[in-house]
Known about the structure:
Blueprint (H helix, E strand, L loop, with lengths): L2 H32 L20 H13 L1 H9 L24 H4 L8 H8 L8 E3 L11 E6 L5 H9 L5 E3 L2 E11 L10 H11 L2 E7 L5 H15 L5 E6 L2 E3 L1 H9 L3 H5 L2 E6 L26 E10 H11 L8 H11 L5 E2 L3 E2 L11 H6 L2 E3 L3 H12 L7
Helix pairs in contact: 6-14, 8-11, 8-12
Bound molecules: 2-acetamido-2-deoxy-beta-D-glucopyranose (NAG) (4 copies).
Catalytic activity: a beta-D-galactosyl-(1->4)-N-acetyl-beta-D-glucosaminyl derivative + UDP-N-acetyl-alpha-D-glucosamine = an N-acetyl-beta-D-glucosaminyl-(1->3)-beta-D-galactosyl-(1->4)-N-acetyl-beta-D-glucosaminyl derivative + UDP + H(+)
Pathway: Protein modification; protein glycosylation
InterPro entries: Glyco_trans_31
Amino acid sequence: MPAARRKLCMMMMMFSIFICVLVSVSWNLRHRSVQEKIRIPSQRFWHQHVVSESFWNKEQQRLDFIFNPIVNFVLSRNSLVELPDWLNDTGPLDPCVPDDRVPMQILDYNSLTQGFKDFLLHMRCRTYPMLINQPRICDGKPFLLLVVKSQIPHFDRRQAIRETWGRAGVLANRTVATVFLLGNALPVDHFPDLLGMLGHEAELHKDLLQWDYRDTFYNLTLKEVLFLEWFSQNCPHAQYILKGDDDVFVNTLRIIDFLEGLSEMKAKDLFIGDVIRDAGPLRNPKLKYFVPESVFLGQYPPYAGGGGYLLSREIALRLHNASRQVVLYPIDDVYTGMCLKKLGLAPDKHSGFRTFDIEVKNRNNPCIYRSLMLVHSRTPQEMLTIWPWIIHPELDCQ
Ligand SMILES: *[C@@H]1O[C@H](CO)[C@@H](O)[C@H](O)[C@H]1NC(C)=O
Ligand SMILES: *[C@@H]1O[C@H](CO)[C@@H](O)[C@H](O)[C@H]1NC(C)=O
Ligand SMILES: *[C@@H]1O[C@H](CO)[C@@H](O)[C@H](O)[C@H]1NC(C)=O
Ligand SMILES: *[C@@H]1O[C@H](CO)[C@@H](O)[C@H](O)[C@H]1NC(C)=O
């Protein structure tokens, strides 16, 4: 490199550093006036972190710290650097041992429901043994993998899906595979013993995935994380995933048609559904989606309603990666939105996804279903009624 250019390079570098310093100093000054809490730095930059009062946020700060590339770089170079006090984690070494410090860290812990308490106590645990697996289900490299969140007692819903929109095999010249995601139904939750029947079902249809955890509302996030893990190990070549509940109706033909029409760029980054924006935690303890301030502060990122969404294999694999860096949240679809945000992505809204159903007057109109991708909710009987409307094209819908 000629000397003149080298000099220019140097000058530009110095200038950039100067700008950087200027920006960070002015940012600090501005924020210091708002937030009196920030102390004069006497230690390394990460020691002056303002620790959140909310439990989830604090746990997330811990993960952000652990996964921060700069900190990682410093830690790997300098073994004398210790973790800051606020990260000195005296919790159980095994993340799956219930954390008995939790009740002390959450002011209104005792007023929470048992389900919410259970979630908080086991929030760090992400590994549960698999009881039923189908390691060969993706051997045919399906074009579309239908992934249905179900629960053990819902035998009829699963059967209706197999006989209608979730039939595995070839549809419109594309390979479709279907799996049902299950946790466990334990005697502590007063379930009768359904495992014998489930064993038969698994033998017969070879489409069940089951893990050994309590299948409860707040554990749905676990279902998501365990699925992503399973996918990356057992099915990473399926091109697209439709993930939905066992009470949705999916127009599989329309989905395949839509996917075939995507440009290569769109296809890779695909994540569509019924997107909810500008939402935040509900603070009324009587509501199903209640989350107290002591647990979470902040707004939700855009997220696709958990009833059903469609994504590409690339995004699923990246979500799996990102999920390790996001603390489990008690609401599964919000959690997926958080993981997308971690990747710098947001879901796209598609009007074919109707997780809040369609107008009552249209619910028995066969032609309406042709253009939809997914509707919530439908009973097994309704699924068997609607599916023929989709696959028998003799109806004139113009
Ligand atoms: C964490 O704190 C405990 C007690 O306060 C101390 O004994 C221990 O050395 C600290 N660990 C780290 C990694 O700083
Ligand atoms: C079916 O799909 C295969 C490959 O996926 C393709 O080669 C073939 O042309 C298709 N057939 C029809 C009738 O579209
Ligand atoms: C989730 O499953 C684990 C493992 O069975 C259980 O310990 C925990 O209590 C469950 N959490 C909820 C919220 O039910
Ligand atoms: C997952 O993360 C690792 C390290 O952060 C990266 O090397 C890898 O490419 C990522 N994989 C995907 C599928 O994004």
